[in-house]
Amino acid sequence: MAGTLQAMILSPSYINKPVSFPFMNRHLPPNSTLLFTRSVSSSRNRSISTTIKAHERPNQIDDGHGSKRNPSKDLNWGERLFNFAGNNFLPLALVSGVVLGFVNPSLGCLADRYYLSKFGTFGIFIISGLTLRNGDVGAAMEAWPVVIFGLCSILFFTPFFSKIVLQIRLQPQEFVTGLALFSCMPTTLSSGVALTNLAGGNSALALAMTVISNLLGIMIVPFSISRFIAYGVGVSLPTEQLFRSLVITLLIPLIVGKVFRESFKGLGNFVDQNRKLFSKVNAMLLSLVPWIQVSRSRSLLLLVKPEVFLVAILMGMLLHLMLLSFNILASQSLSAVSGGSQSVFAKKENSSALILVASQKTLPVLVAVVEQLGGAFGESGLLVLPCVAAHLNQIIMDSFIANFWLQKGLASNKAKVQVVSESGDSISFKRI
C-alpha cells in the first residue's frame, strides 16, 4: 500500500465551498489502483468519512523471451476504435453506404427493385412510434409556436434560397436548376426524425413538422416552383398518388408503432431501456438511402466531368449551410424576443429538432416533380444527380452535428468536479 487518505465531505450547506484533502503521500505510482470505502453518520449535519487506499498493480507481463510488455497497450487501440465506431455509428453507416454503392452498384439496384428504401422508411417510423412517449407528445403540443415556424421555414422561407442558387452559372445548367428545385421541397421523410432522435431532441416535434410539411408540400410545392424558378410555367404533381404514398410510409407505421407501445406495457419499458440499440437500428435503416441512391446514379455520374460534379457537390453543401445558418439565427432571434431562456425556442430539445428538420430537403418528392416536368427544365437525370449528392451531404453533415450535440449533452449530464488549487500537501476541490 502506497498511502492512505482520510477525507471529510461537508454537508449540503457547504457544498460549493472548496474542500481540502491533505495527502500523507502525494506521489502515488502511475500504475496504482484506488479503492474507496465510506461510512455515514446519522447526525443532522451529515459527514461522510471516505478512505482512499492506493496499491500498486503489475502492468507488465513476460512475453516468454525475457522481455516485458504492457497488455493494456494491446487492447488500447481496439478499445478506442470500438468507442469511436459506437460514438459515430450513424456517420460511419452513411459513408459505408456511399462507398458500397460505388464499389458494387448491382446490390443497391437490386434492393431498389424490391423497394427496400421504402421498407427502410417504414421501419424508421415504426421505431419512431415505439419510442414516442406521451410526455414527448405533450412537449410537442406545448411547443406549437416552434411547429408553426418550422412549417413556415420549410414551405415558405427556405424556397427563397432558390433565387440565390439560380445566380450561379455552371455547365450543364441542369445542375443549378436541380438544386434550385431541391430548395423548394419539403423536409426529408425519415432523416430529420432519425437525427433528432440521435441528438436527444424532441422527436414528437420533429415528427409533427415532417408529416405536416410533406402533406402540405404536395399542394404548395407546385406554386413555389412556378414562382421562384419558372414564373408562368404550369407545374402539376400526382397529388393523389403522393398523398397515398406519404400516408402509407409515414402515418400508418407511426400510428402502428405508438399503438404497439401503448398496448403492451413491457414493450414500452424495453424500448426505453434500449434506446441506443434502436438508434443504431435507425441508423442502419437510414444508411439504405445513400446506398441505393448512389447505386442508381453511379452510371450517370461516370459520364460527368469530375471537376464539374465536384462544383455541384460544393454548391449543395453551401446551400445546406445557408439553410442551417438561417434556421439557427431565426431560432435564436425568436428565443430572444419571446421570453429569453423561458421561451420554447430556447429549449435545446426543441431547437435541435427545428434546426435539423427545417434545414433538410427531401429527394423522393423532387424525383416525382422532375418526372412530371417532362424535360421542361432539361435532362431529368442531370436535374436529379446534384440533388442526390446534396441529399447525401445534408444527412452526413447533420449526422456529425447531431452526434456532437449528443456527446455534449452526455458530458454535461455527468457530475463535475473542478480542481481549484494545489499547494503543499493538499489539493482543493469544488463541486460545480
Automatic annotation (TrEMBL):
Q: Which Gene3D superfamilies match?
A: 1.20.1530.20
Q: How does it sit in the membrane?
A: Multi-pass membrane protein
Gene Ontology cellular-component terms listed: chloroplast envelope; membrane
Tell me the domain of life. Eukaryota
Concerning InterPro entries, the annotation shows: Na+/solute_symporter_sf, Put_Na-Bile_cotransptr
Keywords in alphabetical order = Chloroplast, Membrane, Plastid, Transit peptide, Transmembrane, Transmembrane helix, Transport
Per UniProt, the ranges with Basic and acidic residues bias are 53-66
Question: Looking at the record, which segments are called Disordered?
Answer: 47-70
UniProt similarity note = Belongs to the bile acid:sodium symporter (BASS) (TC 2.A.28) family.
What function does the entry list?
Answer: May function as sodium-coupled metabolite transporter across the chloroplast envelope.
Q: What is this protein called?
A: Probable sodium/metabolite cotransporter BASS4, chloroplastic
